[in-house]
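Reviewers asked in the last cycle whether our approach scales beyond single polypeptides. To address this, we selected a multi-component target totalling 797 residues and predicted its structure end to end. The input consisted of the following lines:
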Amino acid sequence: MKQAIVEGNRVEAESLAREAVRLGLDLQETIEKGYVPGIKRVGELWENGEYFLPELITSAECMKTAMAVLQPELGKIGRTSAARGRIVIGTIEGDIHDIGKNLVAAMLQANGFEVHDLGADVKLERFLNKAEEVGADAVCLSALLTTTMLGQRRFIEMLKARNLAGRFKVLVGGAPVTRKWANEIGADGYAENAVAAVKLASDILKK
Amino acid sequence: MERVPKAVVTVLPYGIKVDARKNEPLAAVLERAGILLNTACGRKGVCGKCLVEVRAGRLSPLHEQEFRLFEKKKLERNQRLACLVRVGGNLTVGIPATSLVRETKILDSGPALKTALDPAVKKFFIDSVPADLASPVSFIDSLRAALKNSRLGVPLGLLAGLGDFLAGSGHGITAVVHRDREIIGLEPGDTRDALRGIAVDLGTTTLVVELVDLNTGKTVGVRTALNSQLKHGADVISRLASAYSSRENGEDLRRLVVDTLNDLIGGLLEKSGTAPESVYEIALAGNTAMNHLLLGIPVSSLAVSPFQAVFSCLEELRAAELGFMIHPQGKVYLAPNIRSFVGGDISAGLIASGLEDKKGNYLFVDLGTNGEIVLKTGGLWMATSTAAGPAFEGMNISCGLPAIAGAVASAGGRDELKLRTIGGLPPAGVCGTGLIDLVAFFLKRRELTVQGKILSPEGRLRITPGLALTQDDIRQIQLACAAVKSGMRLMLKEAGLAASDLDGLYIAGAFGRELNIRNTQAIGLLPRMDCDKVVFIGNSSLAGARLVLLNRGARNRVEALASRIRYLSLAKDPLFQEQFIEALEFGIWP
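The resulting structure, written as C-alpha cells, was:
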C-alpha cells in the first residue's frame, strides 16, 4: 500500500483497499500502517527534492481514492477515523490563484485532517462563518499577490475586533508570504509549501 | 548615348525607394537596397520563401514556377517570387516578415520600419496672414482660413501669445496642427523640415526612447535606461501593491518613470540639437499596469480580482498634464490596453508584427515576465497573460542574470559543455536563453530527468567551477515553462487547433536573437513545429509605438484590434490546474 501511494498508482491503491475490506482487516490499522507511511514518504521525497508538484498531486489523489473506499466502511461499523484536526482553507478575497492552495488541501486531507476547501476569492466573512459552522481548529489563508495578502492581516484584525482571537488558529501561506509577515500580523503559523503545511498543522493542532 | 530604361521600386514597409533598370531581377534590386531575402532554394523558384506582395506597378509576366505554386495555394493573387520576377516599370512591393532571412532584426533598428507616412502632427507654412480693415477677422479665423479648415481648435495656452506672435511674423509662420483638429503650435518662419516625435517602449524593467523624424520616418536616436520604479519591486504586481498601499507610493511611482523618461528624452534632444518645444508628440506602448502608474491612476481595481483596468483606449493627452518636457501643448498617445494585464505593449506589438494582414493561424508570444500569448486564427483574435514569472529574465535563479555582459547566453556541445557569454566575458551567471540551452543539454545527457530531478552525484548541474544550477533553480524553470506551455495549449484548444495547424509563431521580447528554437522545443517551452515558421520580432512594442507615431491610421487599427481581441481567462478555466501540473514535465509537445 505504501508502495502504491509513493508510486502514485491509483488503481493499485484502490484495489488494495477493496482487498483489505474483503479480507475483513482492521481498517484503522490498514490506514495507519499501510497508507499513511506512503504519504509520509512522499513528503520526505518532496523535501529532498526528488518529488515535485505532479508527484504530490498524484499521490494525494491515490490517498483520496483509497480513503474513499475505506472511510465509508469504517463509518458502517461506527468507527469513524478521528480526524487529526478540522481545517477550513481557501484563497483570500481578491485572489484567484489556487493551485498551491489545492495542493495544501490535498496533502492535509491525505494526512488525515478533515478539510473544508472554500475555493478562491473567498470573502473574510465566509472563512469565519464556515469555521464556526464546522467547529474548525484552524483556518488556512492562502494569498499569491502582495496586494491580496493584506487580507490576511485584515482577517486577524477582524477576529480581534469581534473578540474571537484564539478561537481557532490562523495559518498563512502563499508565494509572497513570509514568516516575518506572519509574525508581523500575529498569525499562529506559516508554512512554505504543502508538505511543510502538514507538519505545521500536526504540530499546532496536537491534541 | 543610349539611355537605359529606369524604374523606381518602392519597398514597403521600409519606405525605401531604389533605382532599378527595367528587366532587372527583383531579388537583385532588393539586395542592393539591403533587404536580405530568404532564398533557401538558391533562387530557383522552388521554395516559395522569397515571396513579395505587389502593391502597385508592373512586373514581368507570371513564371511557370509561380503558376505551380499558385495552384498549390502557396502563393496568393498579388504575391510573386522575388527570385524569378523582373522589374517591368515603376513599382511598389511589400516585403512580409516571413520572406526575410530570420537573423535580420526587422523590427528593432535596421531599416526603419515605417508605413505610409501620415503622422498625427503636421506642419503647414503660412506665407502671410492678411488683415483687412473692411472685415477685421479674428486672428484665429484668419489662421483657419489660411489653413483652409474652419473648424480648427486652438488651446487656451496658445491664445495668450497669439496676437504678438502674428504681429511679428514678417517671414511667414508655420502652424503645427494635430489630427487636423487643433492648432497646437505656431513657429516663426518655415520650420516644416524640423518635425520630430518620440516613440517609447514603457517596459517594466527597461525603458526605451526613440527620437523619430516625422518627415522621413527615420530614427534619429535611441536611448535606454532601467525603469527606476524598480525600487518599488521588480514585477508589475509588487509595484501595483506599492501604489495600492499608499497615495505617496503611487505618486512616487509616477514621478520616477516620468523623470526617467524626461531624462532620456532630454538627452536625445540635446544630442541631436532638437529644441524640446519643437517636439509635439509622444507615442507610448506599455503594459496595462505601467500605463496606469504613468498616468497616476488608482490601481486598486487592477491589483485584485477581477483585475479590471480603469481605461483601455484614450484620446491623446496633453504632454504638460503628464509632466513631459516637450512642447506644453504637445500630445501623448498611449497604445490601448486590451484586457486586464494584457496591455498597450501587446496591442502595439501586434500592429507592428504585420499579423493583421496575414491569413491563417498564428501565435504571438511575448516571453517576458507576463508571458502574454495572442492567437490569431482566421478573423478571430484571442489573448491571455500567463504570469510566467521572471525566471526567463534570470531572477529567482541562483546563478541567474539579465541579458548583460558576462551572462551565459547560449550553451551546448556534444561531450563537453561549451558556453558563450554576452560580450565574450568570463561567465558571471546565466540569462534566460542560456538557461533554456542548459536545461536542454542536461536533459540530453540524462543528468536531469524529465520530471526535473537532478541526477548528478553532486546534486547540482555544474556549468563552470563557480556556477551551477540547483534543484530549486530547475523547479523555477519548470514553473515558468509550465505557465507559458499550458497557456498556449489551452488557447489552441479553445480555438480547436493543434500546434501543427500554426502557420507561424512570432516571438517578441528581448529574447529574440539568442533563443535556440530547437532547445526551446526540446524542453517544451514552444511546440514542435517547423523552425522556419518561428519568427523573432524583437522589440515589437517599440516598433508599434513608432508605427502609431508615424501613421494615424495605425491608431484606428490598433484601437479596433484591441477591442476585438477576445480575452481568455486561464484562471477561470477548470482545466488549467490539470494542464499546468502536466506541463511541468520537460519534453517535446505535442
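Chain A has two domains: 2-76, 86-204. We regard this as preliminary and will revisit it once experimental data from Aim 1 are available.
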